[in-house]
Design goal:
Pfam families: COG5_C, COG5_N. By secondary structure, this protein is mostly helical. The chain contains 15 helices and no strands. It starts with 20 loop residues before the first helix and ends in a 6-residue tail after the last helix.
């Protein structure tokens, strides 16, 4: 039991105070209302000015009284307060000691966790990086090995096309082309995770491209272009046998396939792919035939005795163009390994359609005669403007020239005998005949 001296005095034992503590501790106490009441109680509301010294003194006295009361209570309750503080301090000490033990245990657990997990994770992450780099090295090594193997295969294949070989095998062109495309497929796919990633930084691959791939691709393309330039199926007189015609056809198809597949596949956004190399080679062939025919006809129109032989040559060139059209029409466009969506988009048609679209014509013989007619008109006018024997002879033999040109056009539009089908009717070439007659005979007058 606490003694009476140790216990804090009760409210009844405390000295009486004039301060109304109940007012100050009330929940609805308002300092402004209390101050207003105090001022009104010590002043007349009608006084001007108000005397604030009296209420201020009262407030100061009240504060002093409260301060004295607090000091008295603190003095009387010092021992209980100190005891309570001591108890709280001891309790806090016990809590701190318990917390220190828990913190030490937590630190020990963390160190154990760091040893078992974090360090092992760091080691595992290092192993992962090593494995990833080894995998990249292995992938790059495999890609390099495959490229070098394809390069060696390409060299062996191309060696069979060398001039010293016994017989040029046109099928090697297609095999070389597929090998080149296989190399191109690897080297052009350089994105992250693709087979060609990082190959451009390998010296062996750069040397392979400079020494093997690029020169051989150029050689293969030039060989294919040469085969197309030399394309000839003979005339209607049957100057070539069926076997020779089939061989020429097979050689041409191989050359066309080669140029079709080797055409550039790197396109700008929105650009449609076209067999550029094939179209250019065929255009060169047609232009060469046209230029030769126009030049020889120009000379023969100025010297009519040579006209029959020249027209026979022109008809033979046109027959070769007819034969070329037949070959193109009967040859299905090959599937492109690097453009798998090409067949899905428009189907694999024949390889004649891209050429007709490129030349903006309906048929190759029509293109041949119409283009020639467009150039001959000015050449005939030159002969007439020069005058002399050539001009007079040309005007005198107007009907003979017209008949010869008509026969030349009709004969030139007939397919070679080795490609002609029995019972097949030849097309109507009246428009081409009319265009040629208009360009030559039309300028001669009546």
């Amino acid at each position: 039991m606490d003694s009476a001296a140790d216990r804090p005095p009760s409210r009844e034992e405390e000295e009486p105070s004039y301060i109304d503590y109940e007012t100050f501790v009330a929940p609805d106490f308002s300092p402004a209302s209390f101050a207003n009441t105090l001022v009104l109680s010590t002043n007349n509301a009608n006084d001007t000015p108000l005397d604030l010294s009296t209420p201020l003194s009262r407030v100061l006295f009240d504060i002093q009284e409260i301060d004295s009361h607090i000091d008295l209570l603190t003095t009387r309750s010092a021992i209980p307060l100190l005891s309570h503080t001591k108890e709280q301090t001891e309790a806090s000490g016990r809590i701190v000691s318990e917390v220190d033990g828990q913190i030490k245990s937590l630190n020990d657990s963390y160190q154990q966790l760091e040893k078992e997990v974090i360090q092992k994770h760091a080691e595992a992450d290092e192993v992962k990086q090593v494995a990833s780099r080894l995998w990249d090295t292995l992938r790059l090594g495999r890609a390099v090995g495959r490229c070098l193997q394809l390069g060696r295969q390409l060299e062996v294949q191309h060696a069979e096309l060398a001039p010293g070989t016994k017989k040029e095998d046109h099928r090697i062109l297609v095999r070389c082309t597929h090998t080149i495309l296989a190399l191109r497929e690897i080297l052009e796919h350089k994105g992250h995770g693709e087979e060609g990633q990082g190959l451009d930084r390998v010296d062996a691959i750069r040397a392979l491209q400079d020494v093997v791939t690029v020169p051989i691709e150029k050689s293969v393309r030039e060989t294919a272009e040469r085969i197309i330039r030399e394309f000839s199926m003979g005339s209607t007189a049957g100057s070539s046998t069926f076997a020779q015609s089939e061989e020429a056809k097979a050689r041409t198809i191989s050359a066309l396939t080669t140029l079709y597949l080797l055409s550039p596949t790197a396109l700008a956004k929105g650009e449609k792919w076209a067999p550029t190399w094939m179209l250019l080679a065929l255009e060169v062939y047609l232009k060469t035939s046209l230029q030769s025919s126009i030049a020889s006809l120009h000379r023969s129109l100025a010297a009519l005795p040579t006209l029959d032989r020249t027209l026979a040559e022109v008809a033979a060139r046109c027959q070769n163009i007819v034969a070329l059209e037949i070959v193109l029409e009967s040859t299905k466009a090959p599937a492109h390994p690097l453009l798998p969506n090409l067949a899905t988009e428009k189907g694999l048609g024949n390889i004649l359609q891209p050429l007709l679209g490129y030349l903006e014509t309906g048929s190759l013989p029509s293109y041949f005669w119409r283009t020639m007619a467009g150039s001959l008109s000015t050449r005939v006018q030159e002969i007439l403007n020069r005058g002399g024997v050539s001009a007079r002879t040309l005007r005198t033999n107007r009907d003979t020239v017209a008949s010869a040109i008509r026969e030349c056009v009709v004969k030139g539009c007939q397919p070679p005998s080795t490609l002609a089908k029995k019972g097949e009717k030849t097309g109507n070439w009246d428009r081409e005949v009319a265009v040629m007659l208009s360009s030559v005979v039309g300028n001669l007058g009546r």
